[in-house]
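Predict the structure of Anaerobic dimethyl sulfoxide reductase chain C.
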Amino acid sequence: MHELPLVFFTVLAQGAAGLFFVLAALLFINKDAKRKVVLDRLMIVAFIAMAIAGPIAMLHLGQPLRAFNVLFGLEHFSALSLEIMAVGGFTGLIVIYLVLALKNLLPALHKPVLFLAMVMAIVLVIAISHVYTLDTVPTWNSGWTLFQFAMTATILGLPAAATALRYQSDKLGVFQRNSDKALATLGLLAMGASLIGFALYLFWMGQLTLPVNPFTAMEYHSRLLAARLVLLFLGMSLWVVSSLRGNNGTIKIAGWGTALILFSELAGRIFFYDLHISSGM
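Done. Here is the predicted structure for Anaerobic dimethyl sulfoxide reductase chain C.
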């Protein structure tokens, strides 16, 4: 599959945006200086995810240096160029925040930089979706594209943040347990919204006039969609049930749940890219 690098890039980048946003929100809620140090260190996970996603995206270009050619499209506000700038801006702000926070430099700038990075996380998800909102691809040319990408950020970001918090549960104490339960509740709601939205998206797509049936464009589509739903349900259930039952410190359960959700989103993204074929291009 030629778009496989983009599958991994978009899912990882959106997951990193969601993870960072959740941890940043917890930092704004936190009032304890020692907890802040722990939460700041966890932000490194979001940076690592972006550090992996960026090079993977370059594989799609064939030659990494072509990224500089894409930047020339900024003159015309090319969606792809803006996406690259959003990736760079978001990653850059993560680095700036980590340097300031971990070195305890200019404390007055910590929250402003953190807030800007949160805004850039949202901009990143929107910028990626704009790359695929194309008049020539009817199956992508709707608000459902942004919805799916935003849900990926949410559904991946919540359990990933919970897993990171569980890794430091001994240092975060009650704050971690309360956060885990709150995130699990949000995760359950997000899964419901995602499933309902995806069902409505499939119904909407079924009403389009297309040269190829999008549901049978590839022989494996039915299995792919089934795998996505099963993996999402199992992954979210592992984490949410353990959390709401009070088992908030076991990192393996949340980790496996996050991994299953990641595979679920990758399966859904493969289906999304396959829909480009169904447009007749």
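The mean pLDDT is 89.
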